[in-house]
Design brief:
Mean pLDDT is 77; it is low at 7-16. The chain starts with a helix and ends with a helix. It has helices at residues 3-8, 13-18, 24-59, 64-123, 127-152, 163-183, 201-228. 80% of the residues lie in helices and 0% in strands. Helix 3 (24-59) packs antiparallel against helix 4 (64-123) and helix 6 packs antiparallel against helix 7 (201-228). It contains 7 helices and no strands. It has 229 residues and is mainly alpha-helical. The protein has a domain at 24-126: Helix Hairpins (Orthogonal Bundle), CATH 1.10.287.1060. The protein is elongated and about 170 Å long. Residues 1-24 are annotated as: Disordered.
Amino acid sequence: MSKISRLFKGGGSAASKGRGVPSPQEALARLRETEEMLGKKQQYLESRIERELAAARQYGTKNKRAALQALKRKKRYEKQLSQIDGTLSTIEFQREALENSHTNTEVLKNMGYAARAMKNVHANMDLNKIDDLMQEITEQQDVAQEISDAISSRATFGDEFDEDELLAELEELEQEELNKGVREIRLPSVPSTSLPSHPDAHCRSFFAVSTRKRADDEDEMKKLAAWAS
């Protein structure tokens, strides 16, 4: 039988109290009280050792007998102090072992409690239903993704036109605008009167204006032809 089995065998704290066995908390409290008592005894012995050492120095060679008695008492106190040190080490080790045992007991108790709770939870679960549920969740996620993709895709309403037809229509509109511009150009009218053989200043001015207007019209025709090409 393992140590843990022997630890749990025989029931809980009620059974322990019935047999007169102290609980871990009671044993730890007793050990701490013992440590405190031995600590006070250490302080007392250390003060007595200092006192006997001071007395031995005081007596010295003037009273050898008294000085030797003081040193003997100092030795006895030092021996008791060493024994207390060993006892405290043993008690400290025992207290730590008992604390660890109590901690392990509580840990195992809580782990067993959690294991029973987990078993009770799993008892109400059907693995087949869980698989069906996970499959349904996956299908619904796929449907949601398809809906999201459909909503976020670019709408194509009214885009089913032939681009070549639209370009041809645009060229026709440009040609109409070109023809319209050509028709709106007005050429200068030819004078009906005969010109004098020796034109005066007024005539020369008229010819200069006509020549300049003709040149402007020719420039306008060139610009229009260049735009059309």
